[in-house]
Amino acid sequence: MYPLIRIDKRIPDGSIWQSRRAYLLPSIGGWTRTYGPKGTRWSNRLGGWTTKFEGISLFDPDRPFTIACSGPEGDRRFYIDIAHRVRTEPKLIEFFDLFLDVMIDASGAVTEKDEYQLVFLSEEMRDFTRKARDEVRRLIAERDPLFDPLGNYFTRPEDTTMLPPATDTLDLD
User: Fold this and answer.
1) Rounded to an integer, what distance in angstroms lies between the CA atom of residue 57 and that of residue 69?
2) What are the backbone angles phi and psi of residue 139, rounded to the nearest 5°?
3) Nearest CA to 22 among 67, 66, 54, 63?
4) CA distances in angstroms from 79 to 110, 148, 164, listed in the order given
5) What tens digit of pLDDT does each residue of 140-162 get?
6) Distance (Å, whole) CA 10 – CA 25
7) What is the pTM of this model?
8) Cα separation, 153 vs 137, whole angstroms
9) Strand 16-28 relative to strand 55-59: parallel, antiparallel, unpaired?
């Protein structure tokens, strides 16, 4: 009922930086949603990690960012990757990370990281990245439902509670 698909996060040189498998949930408002149970393995160039909490991620090819929400009930956090070339297919979601990230902690505090890495992008891509970051910050300030951890985007169907985590280490080549 919920196919297990691969999600690849690429960096601007085209190489895969991070990969995981997650369950495809019904889309909402054009956003493709995925669910990773607690214990899901994330593989990356530094080795990877296993999640301590369940999480739901959102992807839309028409938006310059991806959204991940995870954490214990009542203490959910957001991690927003500024991205381009987001592609969703039946068995694969792929996007190119543009280094700059926006985070929202459980208290609602908004922070950013890795802007210093924009020096590795062309001037045009730096401008694109900053404009996308500004859009994300505007949506957060406007209390857009995309950033409501209790809203429909981040509510998983009840019948997903028994889905096992994907625990295999993925090939990044």
Assistant:
1) 6
2) -60, -40
3) 54
4) 10, 13, 23
5) 999 999 999 999 999 999 999 99
6) 22
7) 0.96
8) 18
9) unpaired
